[in-house]
Amino acid sequence: MRWLVTGAGGMLGADTVAELRGRGADVTGLTRDDLDITEPGAVRRAFADHGPDVIVNCAAYTAVDDAETDEARALKVNGEGPRVLARACAEHTARLVHVSTDYVFSGEARTTPYPEDHPTAPRTAYGRTKLAGERGVLEELPDAAAVVRTAWLYGAHGRNFVATMLDLETRRDTLDVVDDQRGQPTWSADVAELLVLVGTRLSRGEDGRGVFHATSSGEASWYEFAREIFLLAGADPDRVRPTSSDAFPRPAPRPAYSALGHDRWREMGLAAPRDWKSALKEALPHIRKESLS
């Protein structure tokens, strides 16, 4: 079985390629420079050159704030690109695993994680464009595609909250971190493993269609997340101080609550993703090592 990972230069794409190589899979990783998923001709050439049986689409426009004034470009990448991939997969009898986001929801829930079938209601341009991509994939490839939503990703590759906190811990006496946004800190390596699991099930004709949520279990605010990072790094967590979102105004509103439920995994007889604290404890040495290299 041949795998193709788009957006392989990003944090999640790089981890997905590494996960597949670690399993001895036949995998090709293509970066944004290697493949423009919005161009049908380029996608056709990728199929001709690599003959994938399963595509994992990690390519995306992820600049949440920039999308507020650049929605047309974000829609091209996040909305039209996945549909192009899905059409090509349909033509070649290939499977598609597409990565999406918690931003497709309103973020106005308070205490109950969003189930996979909860009505979508994006409040940002980024969320609207990602929802368009979900719909394109499921409309073009209803029997051979999965949409995997994730959130609050951190990892060893690229900029992310954990790497930023580790850096700031060495340069500032105290840090003010938002305490009125709650979600699920999620290690990208864990998500990569779940993407491969879903793709494998699809390729075998097993239950793997539709929508999945790939976030760590449990939940925290950014402030609680930062304190745990400091604690695991051997720093005093009391150096992290709580503040409100009003202290950091941004063009795109952030969800106040974006925890995602994991019912689909349980329905398939699989364990829900592990707790965010145990994942962070394992991830931290990898992130510190990468930041020093």
From TrEMBL:
Superkingdom classification of source: Bacteria
Family matches, as InterPro entries: dTDP_dehydrorham_reduct, NAD(P)-bd_dom_sf, RmlD-like-bd
UniProt KW keywords: NADP, Oxidoreductase
Enzyme Commission no: 1.1.1.133
One GO cellular component, as annotated: cytosol
Gene Ontology BP terms: dTDP-rhamnose biosynthetic process
Residue span, RmlD-like substrate binding domain: 1-286
Gene Ontology molecular function: dTDP-4-dehydrorhamnose reductase activity
Gene3D superfamilies with a match to the protein in the record: NAD(P)-binding Rossmann-like Domain (3.40.50.720), UDP-galactose 4-epimerase, domain 1 (3.90.25.10)
Annotated metabolic or biological route of this protein: Carbohydrate biosynthesis; dTDP-L-rhamnose biosynthesis
UniProt similarity note: Belongs to the dTDP-4-dehydrorhamnose reductase family.
Function: Catalyzes the reduction of dTDP-6-deoxy-L-lyxo-4-hexulose to yield dTDP-L-rhamnose.
Cross-referenced PANTHER family: DTDP-4-DEHYDRORHAMNOSE REDUCTASE (PTHR10491), METHIONINE ADENOSYLTRANSFERASE 2 SUBUNIT BETA (PTHR10491:SF4)
Protein name: dTDP-4-dehydrorhamnose reductase
Organism this protein belongs to: Streptomyces mangrovisoli
